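Why show two proteins at once? Because comparison is the fastest way to build intuition. When a single record is shown, students tend to memorize it. When two are placed side by side, the eye starts asking what differs. So, the first record is below.
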Amino acid sequence: MSTSKKREDLSPKIKAALDKAIQRVIAEEKARNGYLIISDNKGNIKKVAAKDL
């Protein structure tokens, strides 16, 4: 199996793990009534209440 084939197989798994981790962080901050710092598509940085996500 070539190296590029292994990378292709691994990439969706990494994305799924990152999405799961992000959801877990949001859930923890919601439980604490906390805030998260996020950026929009234009690169603007905003402080948003976790309950709004």
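Second record. Ask yourself what differs from the first in the token line.
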Amino acid sequence: MSTSRTAAPPAALPAALPPAPPALRRAAPVLPVVAIVVMVALPVAAGSNATAADAVSGLVVLWALLRTSLRARRPLTGTAAVVLGLPVVGVAVAAGGAVTPGDALTGLARYLQVFVLVPVAVVLLVRDRRDARLVLWSLVGLALWEGGIGVHQYLTATGASYQGADIRAVGTFGPSDVMGMSTVVAFGLVAATGFALKARDRRQRVVAAACALVLLVPLTVSFSRGSWIATAVVGGAQLLSAGARRAAKVCATVVAASVVLVGGVGVGTAALQERLTSITRVTDAPDQSVIDRYSLWAAATGMWREHPVTGVGLKAFPAHRDGHASLALSAGSDTEGAGQGYRRQPLLSPHNMYLLVLSEQGLLGVLTVAGSWLALLVCALRRLRRAERAADCAVAVCGLLLWQLVDYLYSDIGGPTTVLTAVVLGLAGWWALAPDTADTTAPASDTADATARASSEVPG
């Protein structure tokens, strides 16, 4: 006797996911670069050398290589390959002179990440000025976030210790990286200034100008002299690029805002005034930080004199420091506050990127590493003269590159924000070296933009 079984109805297929918005689909290739910027905002444990942003940057490099290989086209021009790949020569030679194999591997990986691999990935993923604007605005957003935290630290005395008071704004970077927040805020300020001066859309100019004025406050309370100097130099250069009339208007606005801040809000404290005056007091009664810096600079030049061609080797500055530094050099700097206890932080670099390269990589490193930066700057400024439709991106990107090169007179590689330097170099490489950059008013540029917009609206 057979039994009949009723067949079960077929399981309902899951509903198809709704298609992504056209704008999101169009921006998808460059979103990994934006993710690097976002990850910088995550707090880093004290003493940790690995960050989430570094991990994401490695994934971005792999994604850029995979995407480029799938598209099966030449990724870089010959000029771009030479300029962006030039640091490999000096870094590789200096790695052979490292004190230990571990120092050679970690130093080589870090230099290649910051000065070669991530910049190349950014050049490959940033396709046009809309992608560049997205990355630049993400820098502004990160600056506003870190700057807001920094101002709160200053007002509530919960920041890093400065002259016995916990008032130094450091954002999420802690007292062990007091330059972190000021670097992020300066990047956002420079990018916003470029948009405020050159953006074609009036609403974008107004928003960017407001962001730039707001970011002046956290930059001020960061007490970072190097960031102040670099921002002043770049701000002046950006204003000159906009013309005398607009420069006068912006200067008047900045002066008025400064009067309000100092007179009304009370930002101009005695500590801030002392910090400002210390910039010019480099030979007449300098503070200990200035003495330490000069001692470290002298030690770096002494190492170079003994090893002029290839330097003492990657990450070898600490091992040779005491043999070249004067007795005026202190053992380290005291850090505390912003949620961390007292810590003595050793001085393991000259706090000058050019002298660090000179001492560890010699003249070969200066010609290849610093030469690559100089070539980027020259190419970017040459293209800046004929930029019109992308003038806002051009002024912002050139300003960021110039800021980094000026700031390297007072800082060097290291810290959670180092990966942002790689992003800035990548943006500069896109503007200076990418062959398809839409930077002119030629009709082909408008046609390309219209084609890109139309293709992004086709359902995929």
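One difference worth noting in the second protein: Residues 53-60+74-444 form one domain.
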